[in-house]
Amino acid sequence: MLWFPFYPAGKPEKNRLSFLSDLNVPCLIIQGTRDQLGGYDWVSQQDIPENVEVVWIEGADHDFKTLKKYNRNVSDTVTQIAKITHHWLVKNI
């Protein structure tokens, strides 16, 4: 999954963690550290099932955009996501 909406914007108390607990297959979530629907600080404090792997894109938001200080554009981020996904598929499928 790309950019899983862990919770509605501004409402972490209404999280969607139960959806992940119900999964019976391996799952990859690629998430931006600045995602307003589940950033690193919040997600890293949650109990994520072992079959769910969360990979972080440093500085990215929910729309793949990164801060200027990272010197990356959306195309760079999409390329990174493609490489991560390919590696995960080879390892898990």
From TrEMBL:
Pfam families in UniProt: Abhydrolase_11
Domain annotation KANL3/Tex30 alpha/beta hydrolase-like: ranges: 2-88
Full protein name: KANL3/Tex30 alpha/beta hydrolase-like domain-containing protein
Organism (species): Marinomonas rhodophyticola
